[in-house]
Structure formats: C-alpha cells, structure tokens
Amino acid sequence: MLEDKNQSRTSLSELGEFKLIDHLTQHTVIHHKDTVKGIGDDCAVIGQGKTQTLVTTDLLVEGVHFDLSYMPLKHLGYKAVMVNLSDVYAMNGMAKQITVSIAVSNRFTLEALEELYAGIQLACNTYKVDLVGGDTTSSTKGLMISITAIGEVEKEKCVYRNGAGLNDLLVVSGDLGAAYLGLQVLEREKQVFQVNPNAEHELDKYTYLVERQLKPEARKDVVQLLSDLEVQPTSMIDISDGLSSEILHLCKQSKTGCQLYEDKIPLDQQVISTCEEFDMDSTTIALSGGEDYELLFTVKQEDFPKIKANPNFSIIGHMTDEPDLIQLVTRGGQKVDVIAQGWNAIG
Amino acid sequence: MLEDKNQSRTSLSELGEFKLIDHLTQHTVIHHKDTVKGIGDDCAVIGQGKTQTLVTTDLLVEGVHFDLSYMPLKHLGYKAVMVNLSDVYAMNGMAKQITVSIAVSNRFTLEALEELYAGIQLACNTYKVDLVGGDTTSSTKGLMISITAIGEVEKEKCVYRNGAGLNDLLVVSGDLGAAYLGLQVLEREKQVFQVNPNAEHELDKYTYLVERQLKPEARKDVVQLLSDLEVQPTSMIDISDGLSSEILHLCKQSKTGCQLYEDKIPLDQQVISTCEEFDMDSTTIALSGGEDYELLFTVKQEDFPKIKANPNFSIIGHMTDEPDLIQLVTRGGQKVDVIAQGWNAIG
User: Fold this and answer.
1) How far A103 CA lies from chain B's nearest CA (Å)?
2) Average pLDDT along chain B
3) In which element (H, E) is residue A276 found?
4) Residue B218 dihedral angles phi and psi, to the nearest 5°
5) CA dihedral in degrees (B300, B301, B305, B306; nearest 10)?
6) Pairing relation of β-strands A326-329 and A44-46?
7) How far apart are alpha carbons A15 and A57 in whole angstroms?
8) Residues B176 and B59 in one domain
C-alpha cells in the first residue's frame, strides 16, 4: 500500500495558525483578474464592477471551538452564523447568503439538529440572510459546522485591513473582554456541576458575559451607522482573536504602528467586577480574550467630530509611523509593547 | 447546567441525507430577490444580472469519505477540489474561486499538509481556479476538508435540474462505474496488505479504475464542448451518488419519468472485466456506484444530430410523462423499475 516516505516531520504546533496558512498558501497563483482580494483579509473580494462579492468561511469543531455541555445547540447555530457575518461586516459590506455544512456523529438525534437549525434560521431571519445550500454528512466523532457567507459591497465602500494611514484614529465598537469572561464563568459552572449536579446555578451576576459568549451579535448596525455618519473607515477588521492580535493585523498590512491607551479600552461594568472577582487583569482580557465580534477600524483625523460623541464607538488610539510596533500607554503613563496573543492554536 | 429536556429522539439513520436536508431546511425563508436558486440544485444561483454567481460546498470527512491508508494526501486534495468544481460545471458554469477549510488532529505533520495543499494547488492551476480563502483549525480526531466553490454562468446558459421535458434525450459524458470498482480494488489490496505487508501489489490490471477513484477529473471540457456544439441542455446534474440517484433527481424536479436502456450505459472494458472477476453486475455498479463525476443531462430531440456521433457522449434514454417512474429496459427487453440508491448514509 501507499506509505509515507517523507522522513521530515514538523509538528503543526510549532507554527501556529497564521504562519501555517501563510506557509501552505505561499505558492497560490491568481488566474482571474476579478479575484480582487484572495487570502489575507476578513473576506475574499470578487468582481470588477461597481458592486463586489465578498466570501468568507469558518469552521467550528466540537471540543475545539465549543463545548455542548454548556452551549445549547440553538445558540451554537446562531453563533456559527454570527462568526461569518462578522467577517462580511468587517469589509463594510452586507451579508446576503450563507451555506451551512455539518458533519455529525450518530450520537446526535434529529431533534438535536432541529435545535441547531432553529438557531441558524433565527440568525438568518434576524440579519436578513438567505440559507442557500450546504452539505450534511456523518462524522466519526462529534459535530463540525462549516459555514460560508456571501456578501456584497460597493467597490468604493469596501474596506481592507491595509488602508490605515499615519495618525488615523483607532476606533472600536461596543466593549471588549465579556465573551472571554463568559466562557470562564461557564467553565467554572461546568466544574461545579460535575462535582455536584444539584448545585444551584450562579449565573445571575454574569448575564451579560454569558450572553456575549453564547449569543454574540455581529455588528451589522455599525456598517449602517458608519454609512449614515458618512464615515469611510481607512481599514477594518473584526475582533475574533482579541484586540492585540487584530491591531497587529491592521498594522502589519497597513505598514504602520499603533499607540493604544489603556484607559480608553471600553469595558462593561460586569467585566470589571468579574475580573476583580477572578483576580484577572481586565486590560489583558480585552487584549487577548477574543470572540467579541466587535469591529475595529481606523478613520481619518477629520472624521473625529463624527465619531467622538457616538456611544457605539470608543477611540482607543492612533496609528504611528513605526511599522508593527504596538505600544500600550498604561493608566500610569508607561509605554509597554503589545505582543499578539489569542490565536487559535493547532495541535 | 443545560440539559436536553427533549424526550423525543429520532435517529438520523432513519432518514437518510436528502430527507434530512429537506426536513432541516423546510422553514427556510428567502429575503433577497437576487437569490435566484437556494437549496436543491448542484449550486445556489445568485444575481439578477446577465452574469450569475454559482456557489456550492462539500464536506469530506476522514473515515467516512476517504481512507488515508490508500488515498495519498495529494490525491485527496485534488479530488476534494474536483468534487466541488463538478457541481459548478453541472450548472453549465465555470468555476473561478474556491475556499478551503481544514480541521486536522495533531497526528498530521506540516509535511502531510503540504502534500494535501500540493494537490489542491495542482487542481487550481489545472482548472484555472483561484484559492481565495479558508480556515485552518485543529480537530479532536482525523482530517476534515470543507471546500466552497464560486463560479459564474451567463443567465441564459444556466442549467437547472428541473428543465427536462417530455421526450428529451438523456445523455451522459464518459463512462460509469469505474470509480466504485477502483474503491473495491483498493479495499481488497488494503486487506491483503494487512495480512501480508510484503505482498506484491496487484494493481496493474486496474489502473483506470484506481485512477478514477483516486484522481477523478471534473468535466469542465464538457461545458466547453456543449457551448462549441451550440447545445443548451434542458437539465443537468453531476454523477456523484450513482446514475439511478441522479436520474431520480432530474425526474423529480422536472416532473418527468425516464426510460433508460441497459445496453446504452457506457462502461469501460476494465469495468466489464473486473465486474466479471468480482462476480458483480456491471449495470448495478453503474447505477449505484457513484463518484464518477460525469455530467448527466437532457437535450431536446432536435439536438440529436449534434450529440450522436460525439465520442464524449452516450445517449442512454429519454424522458417520459410518468413522473418519477424510471424504467430500465434490460438487454433482454424487459422493463424493470429503478430505485435510487447510493446516497451518503448518516449514522
């Protein structure tokens, strides 16, 4: 039979996700001129006309991305759609269609899949997205969901990661860190439950955090709001892996640095109080937590008046001319280097 | 914690893939008028303009769709792309972009993934398709590949499953059954190898069959050929699950029946001789084998002269006015009902 004659064996954990993708796709050739943007942004961008097509895809694996002991299947379906729509909004576009593929082991019943699809369909109806296809198959273990979202954007409105300029303001929607803390709360509850299945739930104090983890909302409203305010961001990305990782992407692709102000990072009161309770540093959580699905973008200085008083936005820093150097100005006035964390480890 | 309060438990194996998809997507609402075709054809069709966008997606799971003990990773990558391109060609369109998502366990090395991507890139370069995105993550078990293909078709050339009319001729490209027999040959070799790892390979007699299983080619050339011949099929589908299953799809959606002639079904000489050796019925293999990735289509009677002498095509039957009734006229002149088989069981 066929044997692996290759003696060189490099473990995937030596690389990490981004370097792995870079390595595997380094020989990619683009054949069509209407492939405007391939790998390397929140979406691929297709089409030479006035309106462009956006394509993004995400894969969620049980035991890696979700734990069904505290993630209800309906919420999982909803969240799996949000993860993809968020990438379309991060291009300043509107999501219009999705395909959903699932692989399930025979542990799952029809009723379980009905719950999953109820969440998918709730997301589709709420965000006005059409479910247009997919694939359904068996798996040898667990549940896997692969969703592809198709969106649309006017060519002149499309925002990439690489457009930030010197002194542009760095802006984030909503607040940060809650989804990660929600996960910590749920993990703790799971451990309590395993020791004592009759223990009372203690989730009341953490409703916002748990909701941000189990039922995140993609920021379609922010795309609409930016349009209404007549603000065209110079670069944009969604926060899936944590603020520091996303800033690094913007800086790397825009060839800028960034100065970030600790006291400007938006935190919900539950994030602050829960960080105290868990003895965690709230800035670290916001920088590295991930799964917030907020939009992080840069705008020209001249747009400051349109952004500054808006309760949906926080101006947290500005772009500098030192490529890839992200410095956090702490509450005490010190400058510290920020290093990317929070990527999705392989292995 | 969250518990499953649902007492009703229906096993997925009670349904089968097509009924499962129908059931789960029965409440699907279409919000956008440019979603021309959603679930239910080889691709979704998007766009109101002269040129439409095609979208299709397939999920391949180790242990369900492929066995790495005889499927080299490079071939797997190539085949995973073919499976998707075939769906685009089945709409009479041209594939232009793909996204590739993979989930891998830590059993896989970087060198293994390089092999997989070498196959994906060979397919992309051969078929002039751009790799534009994807997702890479860890899995708790095995390898899974989810590919989405994006294509393009002129609105007036787009072919659906539901356009076959009374007396239209049923045509298939290439020959049938070889991929399934290739799998049987490889499975037998695997068993021999497990008993005696030093046994000589006996694959020389089966090169065509093994190639059809391990390195299928999607029929981009047929789409071009139909265009050159100025033949516009009235309905079309690709043969992934076996001839009988695909004919049933065309008949069901076109509300026709079909009369199929056993002696017209195209079989390679290796298929005939291997069926004899394995004591299998070659017609059954062609009807139910699957994975041929040939195109099955119907044309108007008036196109008969354009099709009849072409070595790429076999006219194997015609459509009738008895909905869903597929009858095989045997070599002996008997008529027997054909029942769909060969779908991808869940459970």
Assistant:
1) 8
2) 92
3) helix A269-278
4) -75, 150
5) 10
6) unpaired
7) 22
8) no
Q: Give A20's contacts in chain B (Cβ within 8 Å).
A: 110, 113, 136
Six-digit token string for B242 = 């076996």
Looking at B102, B122, B157, the residue that finishes a domain is B157
Taken in order A316, A317, A323, A326, the sign of the CA dihedral is negative
Task: Fill in the amino acid letter for A2.
Answer: L
pLDDT in tens, B293-310: 999 999 999 999 999 989
* CATH assignment of the domain containing A272: 3.90.650.10
A214 and A317 fall within a common domain: yes
Q: Based on the structure, what is the number of domains in chain B? A: 2
**Residue found under tokens 């089409």:** A47
Tens of pLDDT along B20-67?
888 999 989 999 999 999 999 999 999 999 999 999 999 999 999 999
Q: Which residues of A touch B46 (CB under 8 A)?
A: 96-97, 132, 150
Question: How far apart (Å, rounded) are the C-alpha atoms in residues A75 and A129?
Answer: 17
Give the closest-approach CA distance of A217 to chain B in angstroms. 19
- Among the partner residues B25, B62, B190, nearest to A131 by beta-carbon distance: B25
The parent domain of residue A193 ranges over 169-337
Contact partners, residue A27, CB within 8 Å, separation at least 6? B121
Length of chain B (residues): 347
Residue after which a domain boundary falls, among B127, B157, B187: B157
Interface A:B, Cβ pairs < 8 A? 301
Distance from CA of B295 to the nearest CA of A (A): 20
A318 located within any domain? yes
Sign of the four-CA dihedral B223, B224, B225, B230:
positive
A130 token code pair: 């059409």
Angle (CA) A285-A289-A290 rounded to 5° is 145
Is residue B80 located within the same domain as residue B143?
A: yes
Kindly compute the dihedral angle of the four CA atoms of residues B114, B117, B118, B122, in this order, to the nearest 10 degrees: -170
* pLDDT band, very low/low/confident/very high, at A341 (cuts 50, 70, 90): low
A301 lies in a domain?
yes
Examine residue A140 and state whether it is found in any structural domain, yes or no: yes
What's the complex ipTM? 0.92
Nearest 10 degrees: CA dihedral of B346, A56, B120, B158? 80
Residues B228 and B311 in one domain: yes
Residue A24: partners with Cβ closer than 8 Å, 6 or more residues away: B113, B114, B117, B136
Nearest CA in chain B to A141: B141
Does some domain include residue B277? yes
Domain co-membership, A180 together with A225 = yes
- Decide: B281 and B275 in contact? Cβ < 8 Å: yes
pLDDT at position B260 over 70: yes
Q: Residue A101 maps to which CATH number?
A: 3.30.1330.10
Q: What is the DSSP letter of B25?
A: T
- For an interface test with A, the pick among B138, B220, B238, B344 (most A C-beta atoms closer than 10 Å) comes out as B138
Query: Are B43 and B122 contained in the same domain?
Result: yes
Domain co-membership, B142 together with B223? no
d(CA B196, CA A58): 43
Give the pLDDT confidence score for residue A347 in this predicted structure: 30
Please indicate, yes or no, whether residues B139 and B180 belong to a single structural domain of this protein: no
